[in-house]
Amino acid sequence: MSGLKQISAMRWTRERAALLAFVCLLAGAAGGWSIRGMRTPTGSPATAAMTAAAAAVSPQAPSAPRPPTPAQWKDMADAQAAPLLQKLNSDPSDPNLLSALGNLYYDAQQYPVAVDYYARALKSKPDDAAVRTDMGTAFWFMGDADRAIAEFDRALTSVPNNPNTLFNLGLVKWKGKKDAAGATEAWEKLLATDPNYQGKSQIEQMLAEVKGEPAPQPMAKAD
Questions:
Q1: In whole angstroms, what is the distance from residue 129 CA to residue 142 CA?
Q2: Of 201, 140, 222, residue with least CA distance to 176
Q3: Which long-range contacts (CB under 8 A, 24 or more apart) does 202-205 make?
Q4: pTM of the prediction?
Q5: What distance in Å separates the CA atoms of residue 223 and residue 219, rounded to the nearest whole number?
Q6: Neighbour-count burial of 130, counting CB atoms closer than 10 A to its CB (0-12 exposed, 13-18 middle, 19+ buried)
Q7: Cα gap 162→101, rounded to integer Å
Q8: Do 50 and 24 contact (CB within 8 A), yes or no?
Q9: pLDDT tens track for 35-71
Q10: Rg, the chain, Cα only
Protein backbone atom coordinates (compact mmCIF):
# COMPACT_ATOMS: atom_id res chain seq x y z
CA MET A 1 0.00 0.00 0.00
CA SER A 2 1.29 3.46 -0.73
CA GLY A 3 0.43 7.10 -0.28
CA LEU A 4 1.65 10.00 1.82
CA LYS A 5 0.25 9.55 5.33
CA GLN A 6 -2.10 6.86 4.22
CA ILE A 7 -4.02 5.01 6.84
CA SER A 8 -2.48 1.69 7.86
CA ALA A 9 0.43 2.15 5.46
CA MET A 10 1.91 5.47 4.41
CA ARG A 11 4.41 6.65 1.85
CA TRP A 12 6.95 8.79 3.69
CA THR A 13 8.78 11.74 2.23
CA ARG A 14 12.56 11.38 2.22
CA GLU A 15 12.95 14.32 4.61
CA ARG A 16 10.48 12.98 7.18
CA ALA A 17 11.89 9.47 6.99
CA ALA A 18 15.34 10.86 7.77
CA LEU A 19 13.93 12.94 10.63
CA LEU A 20 12.23 9.99 12.27
CA ALA A 21 15.31 7.82 11.79
CA PHE A 22 17.33 10.47 13.61
CA VAL A 23 14.80 10.62 16.43
CA CYS A 24 14.89 6.84 16.79
CA LEU A 25 18.68 6.77 16.65
CA LEU A 26 18.93 9.43 19.34
CA ALA A 27 16.46 7.76 21.66
CA GLY A 28 17.82 4.29 21.01
CA ALA A 29 21.30 5.38 21.97
CA ALA A 30 19.94 6.78 25.20
CA GLY A 31 17.52 3.99 26.08
CA GLY A 32 19.10 0.93 24.56
CA TRP A 33 16.01 -0.41 22.74
CA SER A 34 15.39 -1.32 19.11
CA ILE A 35 12.73 0.21 16.90
CA ARG A 36 11.96 -2.75 14.70
CA GLY A 37 8.59 -3.21 16.34
CA MET A 38 7.23 0.09 15.07
CA ARG A 39 4.34 -0.18 12.63
CA THR A 40 5.64 1.02 9.24
CA PRO A 41 4.93 -0.17 5.68
CA THR A 42 7.36 -2.81 4.49
CA GLY A 43 9.74 -1.52 1.86
CA SER A 44 9.05 2.19 2.44
CA PRO A 45 11.84 4.77 2.77
CA ALA A 46 10.97 5.06 6.45
CA THR A 47 11.43 1.36 6.96
CA ALA A 48 14.88 1.45 5.40
CA ALA A 49 15.84 4.54 7.38
CA MET A 50 14.64 3.15 10.68
CA THR A 51 16.24 -0.22 10.05
CA ALA A 52 19.54 1.53 9.42
CA ALA A 53 19.08 3.57 12.58
CA ALA A 54 18.36 0.46 14.61
CA ALA A 55 21.42 -1.29 13.20
CA ALA A 56 23.58 1.70 14.07
CA VAL A 57 22.28 1.69 17.62
CA SER A 58 22.37 -2.04 18.22
CA PRO A 59 23.89 -4.22 15.46
CA GLN A 60 22.97 -7.33 17.44
CA ALA A 61 19.56 -6.34 18.77
CA PRO A 62 17.58 -8.95 20.72
CA SER A 63 15.09 -11.00 18.75
CA ALA A 64 12.06 -9.57 20.57
CA PRO A 65 12.79 -5.88 21.21
CA ARG A 66 10.29 -3.73 23.01
CA PRO A 67 8.95 -0.76 21.08
CA PRO A 68 9.03 2.71 22.64
CA THR A 69 6.29 3.56 25.10
CA PRO A 70 3.99 6.52 24.37
CA ALA A 71 5.90 8.53 26.96
CA GLN A 72 9.20 7.76 25.24
CA TRP A 73 7.79 8.77 21.87
CA LYS A 74 6.58 12.04 23.35
CA ASP A 75 9.96 12.73 24.94
CA MET A 76 11.65 12.15 21.58
CA ALA A 77 9.19 14.40 19.80
CA ASP A 78 9.59 17.14 22.39
CA ALA A 79 13.36 17.02 21.98
CA GLN A 80 13.12 17.29 18.21
CA ALA A 81 10.50 20.03 18.44
CA ALA A 82 12.68 22.35 20.53
CA PRO A 83 14.60 24.03 17.68
CA LEU A 84 11.44 24.36 15.60
CA LEU A 85 9.64 25.99 18.51
CA GLN A 86 12.47 28.50 18.83
CA LYS A 87 12.03 29.44 15.19
CA LEU A 88 8.28 29.61 15.68
CA ASN A 89 8.73 32.29 18.34
CA SER A 90 9.74 34.76 15.63
CA ASP A 91 6.75 33.89 13.42
CA PRO A 92 4.00 32.08 15.37
CA SER A 93 1.77 31.73 12.30
CA ASP A 94 4.35 30.23 9.92
CA PRO A 95 2.37 27.38 8.29
CA ASN A 96 5.49 25.49 7.25
CA LEU A 97 6.89 25.38 10.77
CA LEU A 98 3.51 24.52 12.23
CA SER A 99 2.92 21.68 9.79
CA ALA A 100 6.47 20.41 10.39
CA LEU A 101 5.72 20.27 14.10
CA GLY A 102 2.47 18.51 13.34
CA ASN A 103 4.33 15.93 11.26
CA LEU A 104 6.86 15.36 14.00
CA TYR A 105 4.20 14.67 16.63
CA TYR A 106 2.18 12.60 14.17
CA ASP A 107 5.19 10.36 13.57
CA ALA A 108 5.55 10.01 17.33
CA GLN A 109 1.89 8.93 17.51
CA GLN A 110 1.01 12.02 19.55
CA TYR A 111 -2.08 12.65 17.48
CA PRO A 112 -3.88 15.30 19.59
CA VAL A 113 -0.73 17.43 19.63
CA ALA A 114 -0.30 16.92 15.89
CA VAL A 115 -3.90 17.99 15.26
CA ASP A 116 -3.33 21.18 17.23
CA TYR A 117 -0.34 22.16 15.09
CA TYR A 118 -2.09 21.19 11.85
CA ALA A 119 -5.09 23.31 12.82
CA ARG A 120 -2.83 26.29 13.50
CA ALA A 121 -1.10 25.82 10.15
CA LEU A 122 -4.44 25.71 8.38
CA LYS A 123 -5.46 29.03 9.90
CA SER A 124 -2.67 30.61 7.86
CA LYS A 125 -3.06 28.34 4.83
CA PRO A 126 -6.59 26.92 4.81
CA ASP A 127 -6.38 25.47 1.29
CA ASP A 128 -3.41 23.21 2.04
CA ALA A 129 -4.97 19.87 1.11
CA ALA A 130 -1.95 17.85 2.24
CA VAL A 131 -1.98 19.27 5.76
CA ARG A 132 -5.75 18.93 6.02
CA THR A 133 -5.51 15.31 4.89
CA ASP A 134 -2.84 14.69 7.51
CA MET A 135 -5.09 16.23 10.16
CA GLY A 136 -7.99 14.06 9.04
CA THR A 137 -5.79 10.97 9.26
CA ALA A 138 -4.75 11.96 12.79
CA PHE A 139 -8.42 12.26 13.74
CA TRP A 140 -8.95 8.73 12.44
CA PHE A 141 -6.20 7.39 14.67
CA MET A 142 -7.84 9.27 17.54
CA GLY A 143 -11.02 7.29 16.88
CA ASP A 144 -13.05 10.07 15.28
CA ALA A 145 -14.12 8.77 11.86
CA ASP A 146 -16.69 11.53 11.33
CA ARG A 147 -14.19 14.32 11.87
CA ALA A 148 -11.68 12.52 9.65
CA ILE A 149 -14.19 12.32 6.81
CA ALA A 150 -15.13 15.97 7.27
CA GLU A 151 -11.49 17.02 6.91
CA PHE A 152 -10.97 14.78 3.87
CA ASP A 153 -14.06 16.24 2.22
CA ARG A 154 -12.82 19.76 2.88
CA ALA A 155 -9.38 18.89 1.49
CA LEU A 156 -11.05 17.65 -1.68
CA THR A 157 -12.72 21.03 -2.18
CA SER A 158 -9.19 22.45 -2.58
CA VAL A 159 -7.68 19.57 -4.57
CA PRO A 160 -10.59 17.47 -5.89
CA ASN A 161 -8.47 14.60 -7.21
CA ASN A 162 -5.86 14.36 -4.47
CA PRO A 163 -5.02 10.62 -4.51
CA ASN A 164 -3.92 10.45 -0.88
CA THR A 165 -7.10 12.12 0.31
CA LEU A 166 -9.24 9.81 -1.81
CA PHE A 167 -7.35 6.77 -0.59
CA ASN A 168 -7.86 7.65 3.07
CA LEU A 169 -11.45 8.76 2.54
CA GLY A 170 -12.26 5.36 1.08
CA LEU A 171 -10.62 3.52 3.97
CA VAL A 172 -12.37 5.53 6.67
CA LYS A 173 -15.73 5.16 4.97
CA TRP A 174 -15.17 1.42 4.65
CA LYS A 175 -13.58 0.61 7.99
CA GLY A 176 -14.99 3.42 10.11
CA LYS A 177 -18.51 3.83 8.75
CA LYS A 178 -19.17 0.50 6.98
CA ASP A 179 -20.00 2.59 3.92
CA ALA A 180 -19.02 0.29 1.04
CA ALA A 181 -20.63 2.54 -1.55
CA GLY A 182 -18.76 5.58 -0.30
CA ALA A 183 -15.46 3.72 -0.27
CA THR A 184 -16.07 2.43 -3.78
CA GLU A 185 -16.86 5.92 -5.04
CA ALA A 186 -13.66 7.38 -3.56
CA TRP A 187 -11.39 4.64 -4.87
CA GLU A 188 -12.95 4.48 -8.32
CA LYS A 189 -12.49 8.24 -8.62
CA LEU A 190 -8.86 7.83 -7.57
CA LEU A 191 -8.19 5.26 -10.28
CA ALA A 192 -10.10 7.24 -12.90
CA THR A 193 -8.17 10.44 -12.23
CA ASP A 194 -4.79 8.80 -11.59
CA PRO A 195 -4.64 5.60 -13.70
CA ASN A 196 -0.92 5.19 -13.02
CA TYR A 197 -1.35 5.43 -9.25
CA GLN A 198 1.47 3.61 -7.50
CA GLY A 199 -0.89 1.62 -5.29
CA LYS A 200 -3.30 0.72 -8.08
CA SER A 201 -3.14 -3.03 -7.47
CA GLN A 202 -3.88 -2.55 -3.76
CA ILE A 203 -6.85 -0.31 -4.58
CA GLU A 204 -8.16 -2.94 -6.99
CA GLN A 205 -7.86 -5.62 -4.33
CA MET A 206 -9.71 -3.51 -1.78
CA LEU A 207 -12.41 -2.67 -4.30
CA ALA A 208 -12.88 -6.37 -5.00
CA GLU A 209 -13.15 -7.05 -1.27
CA VAL A 210 -15.66 -4.25 -0.77
CA LYS A 211 -17.77 -5.53 -3.65
CA GLY A 212 -17.43 -9.16 -2.58
CA GLU A 213 -15.71 -10.13 -5.82
CA PRO A 214 -12.58 -12.27 -6.27
CA ALA A 215 -9.45 -10.17 -6.03
CA PRO A 216 -7.81 -9.54 -9.44
CA GLN A 217 -4.83 -11.75 -10.12
CA PRO A 218 -1.56 -10.32 -11.47
CA MET A 219 -0.97 -10.89 -15.17
CA ALA A 220 1.69 -13.41 -16.13
CA LYS A 221 4.64 -11.88 -17.95
CA ALA A 222 5.14 -13.24 -21.45
CA ASP A 223 8.62 -14.51 -22.27
A1: 20
A2: 140
A3: 202/1, 202/2, 203/167
A4: 0.69
A5: 12
A6: middle
A7: 23
A8: yes
A9: 222 233 333 333 343 334 444 444 454 566 788 888 8
A10: 19
